[in-house]
Specification:
The protein has 12 helices and 15 strands. The protein is an alpha/beta fold. Helix 1 packs across helix 2 and helix 7 packs across helix 9. The structure holds iron/sulfur cluster (2 copies).
Length: 375
């Protein structure tokens, strides 16, 4: 059985968030895991530099509260590390830290300044033989995973498991999309990554979450919740249920089930929670094709495969919104995006519908349209 602890938090008021962290870590017995020498890694979601109110990144109040909890108990060997979308170097990450509100007392002292990475072998039988991971991850004795609850254009949901994609350095992330272009293989890779990184504790920021076209361009939805667990898959199951969605239909949890990682039972403790109503709005890229109810359950999978071959989603640029920053081109694993005269162009040919471009566009100029493959 896996335990997930829920604590309702009405706002990012620093004292309220700290009280929630105290309840979570007390429930899990985190202090018993640590000694003053333990190198503790805090891994937030910093998709890109964005002000906290935008709901894209883990809120600084969560980081501050976790750091306070650790340091007040004598565990001050802490590093806050993340590899955002884009480059993984001092200059780029300084901009991300600033824009995301992390260069403030109580956090800035702990921000990562090591931008190297190491190769880590995986378990036998995995499809990925080794992962390149940022050095703060490989050097950590204890990992506290701090995801943000969001919808996601490729994986439907971004919570505990997906957050660990940010342990892969910089522009090696688009390369992983290129190597694992379809969702099924990509989410299997994510589970193998999760089993390689093995976070000790995951604490989910769902005080403000994101629905619709997440993880970068959706709408903020106030949900007033934090969840913690030692089992990241159990936490994702609980988070998906809270979103009003079905865990068994989430690609990464389906992969977890195939790999024997699905928790047998998820037991909730702490505050009582109910699924959101209405359920979270899904990204345009993963909305139902509309035939689910018309097709018998046993035929849905093959029908979906056929529909995907005929009709799939592609990114579309609104040229009036595009500012020509080039972030989409930088993050495109297929290198098919061209920025000319300060406007991005995206051909469908060669596109693997990973939506990294949409994820990284700072002005939400990229939407998703369905269209015939190759046209
Ligand atoms: S154009 Fe966008 S969706 Fe297509 S491969 Fe490039 S990043 Fe992925
Ligand atoms: S589409 Fe977005 S990310 Fe791409 S160049 Fe235009 S503004 Fe930048």
């Amino acid at each position: 059985m896996s335990f997930v602890n829920a604590v309702k938090v009405p706002s990012y008021d620093q004292e309220l968030v700290y009280a929630a962290v105290c309840r979570h870590f007390e429930a899990l017995g985190v202090a018993r895991d640590l000694s003053p020498d333990t190198r503790v890694l805090l891994k937030p979601n910093l998709l890109y530099g964005k002000k906290p109110e935008a709901g894209v990144t883990t809120n600084p109040a969560i980081l501050k509260a976790v750091i306070r909890w650790l340091t007040e108990r004598g565990f001050s060997n802490i590093v806050v590390a993340e590899s955002s979308g884009g480059l993984f170097n001092a200059e780029y990450m300084r901009g991300v830290y600033s824009a995301s509100g992390l260069r403030v007392p109580g956090i800035q002292e702990y921000l990562n300044r090591d931008f190297t990475y190491r190769s880590v072998p995986t378990r036998e039988g995995f499809t990925v033989r080794s992962f390149n991971l940022i050095t703060p991850v490989t050097g950590a004795g204890y990992i506290i995973n701090l995801p943000k609850l969001k919808t996601h254009a490729m994986t439907t949901v971004s919570a505990g498991v997906k957050n660990l994609f940010g342990t892969i350095p910089g522009l090696q992330k688009p390369d992983m999309h290129r190597r694992y272009p379809n969702t099924r293989d990509f989410v299997r890779m994510l589970c193998e990554l999760c089993e390689t990184v093995r976070p000790n504790v995951t604490l989910l920021d769902a005080v403000d979450s994101m629905e619709g076209n997440g993880p970068g361009g959706g709408t903020v939805r106030h949900t007033g919740l934090t969840l913690t667990s030692r089992d990241v898959y159990a936490l994702d199951v609980a988070a998906v249920r809270f979103m009003g969605l079905e865990p068994g239909e989430m690609p990464h949890l389906m992969a977890a089930r195939e790999m024997g990682l699905w928790p047998e039972r998820v037991e909730l403790s702490g505050d009582e929670i109910a699924p959101c109503s209405p359920a979270f709005r899904l990204p345009d890229a993963v909305k139902s094709t509309g035939f689910d109810d018309a097709v018998p359950r046993f035929l849905r999978k093959p029908a979906e495969l056929v529909m995907d071959r005929l009709l799939r989603s592609y990114p579309h640029v609104d040229r009036s919104k595009c500012v020509g920053c080039g972030r989409c081109a930088e993050s495109c694993p297929q290198k098919i995006i061209r920025v000319e005269n300060k406007k991005a162009g995206m051909p469908r040919r060669g596109c693997i519908s990973c939506f990294c471009c949409q994820e990284m566009c700072p002005v939400h100029a990229i939407s998703v349209k369905r269209g015939l493959r190759g046209l």
